């Protein structure tokens, strides 16, 4: 439980004169800002020429903020190495998949695996940690900025060499790599690790294993860099460390945050796609369990750059975002950024104050959200988000598999968000969990879009099922080995065996006009599909293909009782409006089977974040779509803000309105 | 006439363990496979390190297949040189039009004109030919795989030097090149052959002659490579040699197959575009006259790669494909591929068995087609495809001209296929013939989309006309010289003179709202057009422009009687539904004039392949669109499978059904 | 006032044999051609090998033309350096933004800043000027061809070095650059000028200042090259010098033409976009005041290249173009080109004669336009275009700002053309003027899309207002400094202060559903917007936001009386049909306020070009859209061609028809 809620902004004091700084701090106080994030890109200010490191300015800023009651999150500036590191050194720069080296002047232009970059990053971080690591007001650290947001894998010579080492560590002998990747195909076979290329230009596609492994290598290396940086900071500072990450970047967030202390992320989802905003809350809450997460960046109104600008958020939406985030477990909610950039490529980006120090179009949003936060703070600090009963697997490793194998332009993030949005609409309190997460406390586990299931995951999921859990696996789950190859004993490997079925066919079902039937509903089926025949005792068909030529009569949904629970296979994706209804019916059915209680009855666009107090339940209700709606109160409750008594039954919620309802006891009955 | 029909698959035994091989061969027998194609990409298996060549495995495979009654087509593996050839040798690799060298790990990454590549290719092919060239069961050879499928012209240094030699051979003196290409334009003029660039990066378009000649150079060189490889094989083996080509690749199939022994090709057309499937049968039948062709690759259900997948064929369609192919002259019909790849980038591609050795969604298709082939075999072996009376010119050289000069994104293959599809729909038995093909036996010659007409072609076509043939030339025919320049005496050069007309204007007619009238029909005109005024005796207008400003009253179709025949000029493309009707009316009119008899009356989507027996005619009727239809039997016949008597008149054909009808005598009367 | 009107063609005699040349000259006479443009790309003809310069051919051509009564404009051939300059010298070639050097064979392949290129360009130009500079018949010079049409900024090593010098000249000390560009952002900071990169490859966007300054540098350098070339010519020839430029190219036309003697340009606008044709006449008339402009290239019917072709102009349209151009101030009207190219990449381009020397589809157009020119010549030579009362600012510098900062793909040329088209439709006689143009004679100044207002411009515009002018600034005007950064005192800098308002917010208003009200009309607002609150005495709101959340009640149009005139701010763009109406109402309102008299009442698609004679007015009326229309004659007049009396009131104009009306006195009353 937090001591307080943080309400923050990113600030770049090194870009402004003293007059602006005084003005800024005064206005921050006015608006209720209690934390700022600084230093992110300031390497050239800190070390204008090589080794001329001076951190006095930032020390003074932190002390000055502290004097005004504002805490600081200090950033390392490694996303933007100075010109003395990059000029004349193309070998230190990021190299794209065409083999082209980046130039100076943007971000992430250096290769984070370059030895000299690592040395200089360690040094500047050491100096920063020494200088500010124990200042009063310093409450945390952020490493770098948005790792791999602008770039994906680097193909420089440093990376080539590290790639060979990584492969040798993984495979030991080149023959093992050849066997695992099946390099006899197309005479790809390597005689030594030194010959294995990076996935650069080729006439046609590279081997799937090469493409996926290079992504895993790259993601491990950036986590390694983060770990090195964190270790350096920890030598000088006890403040917790995070990184402003995202599920949009080319990182393995699970690996990355293993070496960090708390979770944080950036999000710029549009108001019309609020599910893409909320999925973050339900994911990042679980990344570092027991430690609240932060929204490190979001826009006070709109985002923008020289080459784009988004639609400003409607009035009320930013407050709804803040309330939802805090209610779903956020400790910090921060804007990017405080004062509009005077120069550079993000001049058009939304901010709290303009470059001339006046309130922007987003200012009122920021003020409203601040007041809401003040109002909610005591209620939230006295409660914690309820643990969800339903968990959905999230995997950046799976994302890498889909990047290697998008088939018809499948996009992992989009697939996962759409799948998640159905749980959201159904009012099922849910969590997204990383592949390595423990399953204790859950009753229902959903694992869509996980091409490769690791033995560890399978074992854990199986134990979960044996103990009474229901695991819904699929679609597009289990069909690939960990080396991104095809199983050779059955289509879905060990998962298929456990499910007690035989996968009769796997094929791209789109365009074949195939219709599936399940739960009394019919729907067209889509995506690359696996269709089954139950084979083992206890396995049975739940959904069958009605037509579809040779596949007619085969199953696309099966279940099998295992121990006290069930393993459900979803082999295909019901699509369209009917498919949506079928999928929800499936979720509802197994939510019932699993005995889920944490499910609320709200109209679409309105969410409930249930929180547990000492002997009572708090519902934070927020309308996210601006259309207003209603929620069914399962029992009599109290408006926690006005103390008014509320009868059980329908409660109306206005456009972007939030309500806090207190119930005695558990309060959340399934409808 | 074939001894038998072949039904085959591509197989990669080098990728699997013994258990899988035994399983595979047993199932092949079960399914009726009587030929397999092996070795295609196996260079690294054959020669894992430089000079360590061992072909024992493939010898044993061929012997083993033979022992099971399965014949073999052996492939050379030169599409995928091993890592010892490519690693550290960017100068041996294919270079794209941006000047970027390809890396190892895909296919066609080496430059086929690189000297070392040629040397090593010759050596491995020599060893293979020596080792397997006389094994029983070896019935043929396939060179490489799909030349120039993934790449087009290479721009490496080796090619640059060969290009200069090629130019010197062609032009002798640089001044002749300068004159022919008109390089005084834009000061392109070269002082020596060494200065002539490859068509790489430039601020705007290159000279048309340069672009087209570089394509011709590239196509000649790949034919030269094929010729060298074939010669090497012939030193050791008498089995006939082919290549699995396509009209989609960057090759000159006419030149390529001059050095080979039989024609074969790959096709993955979708069921909804069955004309794109059938055009191959009607083309490849004529490429090596007197020798039946092979479909070397087609999908048992769907194609796929990491980044794409097609729609599975509807049930019954693959059988229809096989029946149509055999009936139209195929000796072999082969699938790609037998067993799903476990690794690499084509894991999602359809196959007969899955990677775990079970029947796939396409298996039933393969079985049905096998039964049909068994049923048809005696009937087809006793007959031969009737020679068509209508021939349509096909030219990969023309394709190169259109790639240089696409105007508004004109695509030669698409243009030709759409033009062809009208003959198909009209039931005109037809053949596509290469530019150099003899015209004996034809009554009607259609030559659309041939920008440059060679003197040899013109002379042959003229003789054909003099002897009574009707030649319909155009649209987009004759307007360029062989050097890809404009004629300077008249728009269409010698063709125009022969046609006895004057081309008054050539211009892009689309968007001008011009309407043409011919055969009592009106239709909008499209494409780059030539409009005429008859000038010489015997020349007359057949179609005129109704409006169109200055072009009103001019002709877009003319004809001229020459000797016993006629030369028809089609200067513009009638477009839309009305244009389609006009074009068919034109074809029907001249089919009548030419006295075509081989025309059948079938509903759209159903085709008839007429074959000649000893004193009788066989019609193989196939429904290709799944909608079923009917065919008018011109006289009483017999169902060749059931021996039932069939009256003249309408015969109904079910969805994807085939029927074999035997008629006494000639049997095909024009309706 | 011109001695005569010129009617010309581009001609490439170096590409043809003597027979063609004689034929060409005879036909030119026939058609009324009285000037030809030669030599444009003929460097390799003039200097086939290095230093072997021979200009005899061109001397003879000019003399021969002169003997036939045809004048010549001689071109320098520097757009196409010969192979001896480019071969083996990638360092002399243009380098694109990916760092790739261009090859020989197209145009503009050399870097115009390369030292050797400059040397050789100076030399060949010197020789040409010496040889032909004083020949009778030589009436003018054209430098190079379409500077920067195919390429934008060059990123070669020569340019890098010159860029550093340019920056040093501009900023003196690197710290000044750092401050002005705000390079503390993202640690871009440079320690010396040598470190400042060109805007090449980077992971994300470059600094706005870097991108814009590099464009200004490039545009200054090409103007410098033009200046050097002009100086060389002037040493040998008194004939005036121009360049065939365009607002589509990457040049600063204002700077470029400062060093030249008369304005000319190329245009290939389609007939359906005739505003894009006419905007040129209204712009280029003012570029070199007092000197008539030339249309140096336009198509006789259609344009084309190997990869494109346009729709042929409808019959009558080319004549309408010629009449409009001459009436709006053109002295010359020239086609590209006379005879269709036999070779190269522009074979499909429209011309007057075909490659075989016959009239093309455009020939009739050329003949009709020639007759119209003959008919108009005496009338036009006796009059001059009336000076417009309404001026609209045009700035290639602004274009550079938009290229750096397109936000949602804003395109300066498209924005300006659409804005201009409203003045055209409203019959307001108008001129486009460069930023540096004097404002004498104008009553209304429109300055849309000028992100950065220079102090000089502001001062001149302010003086204009004080003297009674009305200045409408915006939208998207004034929001950036000259360094492409944000103002820090207020949103619009000094402009805002003068307008007496406060910009309350700036933000992207699209998608917010915001509606503005002004002049009794309502319209949706779009584009990046600034919304105001009048603050100073005399400032008042003219248009307010009706809804729009926090911006409701703020102004998007304000005006302030300053001296005898007014400064109007337009902060947002009214969009859609309603927005179009509102904008026209705004223009009409301030046209009235400003006392504009030069406004004609014509139906849409018909224009009036008013000209001043000695005591009389001439209206040249042209229907440009082919639909015909009518014009209200404000008073009785005379048909200047037939001498018929015409009553005041409606005069009908046929499709593409032109009429010349003579009025006594001023003649143009506002309706």
From TrEMBL, chains A, B, C:
InterPro entries reported for this sequence: Beta_galactosidase_C (IPR013739), Beta_galactosidase_Trimer (IPR013738), Class_I_gatase-like (IPR029062), GH (IPR017853), Glyco_hydro_42 (IPR003476), Glyco_hydro_42_N (IPR013529)
Residues in Beta-galactosidase trimerisation domain copies: 388-596
Keyword Zinc part of the UniProt annotation: yes
Every Beta-galactosidase C-terminal domain range: 605-662
Keyword Zinc carried by entry: yes
Entry EC number(s): 3.2.1.23
Family: Belongs to the glycosyl hydrolase 42 family.
Coiled-coil boundaries: none
MF-aspect GO terms: beta-galactosidase activity
Reactions this protein catalyses: Hydrolysis of terminal non-reducing beta-D-galactose residues in beta-D-galactosides
Domain Glycoside hydrolase family 42 N-terminal residue range list: 11-369
Protein name: Beta-galactosidase
Assigned keywords, A-Z: Glycosidase, Hydrolase, Metal-binding, Zinc
Organism: Paenibacillus harenae
Major enzyme class: hydrolase
PANTHER family documented for this protein: BETA-GALACTOSIDASE GANA, BETA-GALACTOSIDASE YESZ
